[in-house]
């Protein structure tokens, strides 16, 4: 029984240390990003499907407080805009606009304090190496999200594992902070 108590204490101590490190990393992120008003860059997204087939998408992204725009250029053109918990997907070839609600909060919104608050509220956190692993607290089609940072705390990759067996790896590059981004980029004709 004594050994069990020591093991429980050890597990609790390790958990507390891990939680402290996670908060520390989040605090470092807040410190780094609190003066950043906008972010733009390029991305490459590889989706691996349950049958092993994969599809690669490429484009550019823009982020300002509470909004993001993802312009997919290949293999097909598409525009995805997030505003709060709403998502708009526009297919310019078909001129079709779809609107929906995200089941997990988008956490690259340009307001890092709000993003950290969303992360803490909606996910269990685990720091691992140079990244964070997020596990949704509520029912979601996402199993986990891994965010990998470089030594300067720039987001390098966001890996999302879905319960359906799909895996998406988003690689960010050519990132520019505090870029001048026109407001009109965050609206699409027909958007509510």
Quick overview:
The protein is of the alpha+beta class and 192 residues long. 22% of the residues lie in helices and 45% in strands.
Structure commentary:
22% of the residues lie in helices and 45% in strands. It is an alpha+beta fold and 192 residues long. The chain has one domain (28-186): outer membrane lipoprotein receptor (LolB), chain A (Clam), CATH 2.50.20.10. Strands 6-5-4-3-2-1-11-10-9-8-7 form an eleven-stranded antiparallel sheet.
Please tag this protein with its features.
192 residues; alpha+beta; outer membrane lipoprotein receptor (LolB), chain A; eleven-stranded antiparallel sheet
Blueprint of the fold:
Elements: H1 2-33, E1 38-48, E2 54-64, E3 67-74, E4 78-83, E5 86-91, E6 96-101, H2 112-122, E7 123-128, E8 131-136, E9 142-149, E10 155-162, E11 167-177
Antiparallel strand pairs: 1-2, 1-11, 2-3, 3-4, 4-5, 5-6, 7-8, 8-9, 9-10, 10-11
């Amino acid at each position: 029984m004594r050994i069990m108590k020591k093991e429980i204490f050890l597990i609790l101590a390790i958990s507390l240390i891990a939680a402290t490190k996670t908060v520390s990393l989040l605090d470092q992120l807040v410190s780094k990003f609190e003066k950043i008003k906008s972010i733009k860059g390029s991305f490459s997204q590889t989706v691996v499907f349950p049958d092993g087939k994969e599809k690669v998408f490429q484009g550019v992204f823009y982020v300002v407080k509470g909004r993001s725009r993802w312009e997919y250029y290949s293999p097909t053109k598409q525009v995805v805009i997030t505003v709060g918990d709403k998502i708009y997907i526009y297919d310019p070839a078909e001129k079709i606009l779809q609107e929906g609600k995200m089941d997990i909060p988008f956490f690259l919104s340009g307001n890092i304090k709000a993003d950290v608050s969303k992360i803490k509220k909606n996910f269990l956190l685990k720091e691992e190496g140079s990244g964070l692993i997020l596990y949704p607290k509520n029912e979601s089609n996402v199993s986990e999200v891994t965010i990998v940072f470089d030594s300067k705390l720039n987001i390098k990759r966001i890996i999302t594992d879905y319960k359906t067996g799909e895996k998406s790896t988003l690689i960010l590059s050519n990132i520019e902070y505090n870029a001048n981004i026109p407001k009109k980029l965050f609206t699409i004709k027909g958007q509510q």
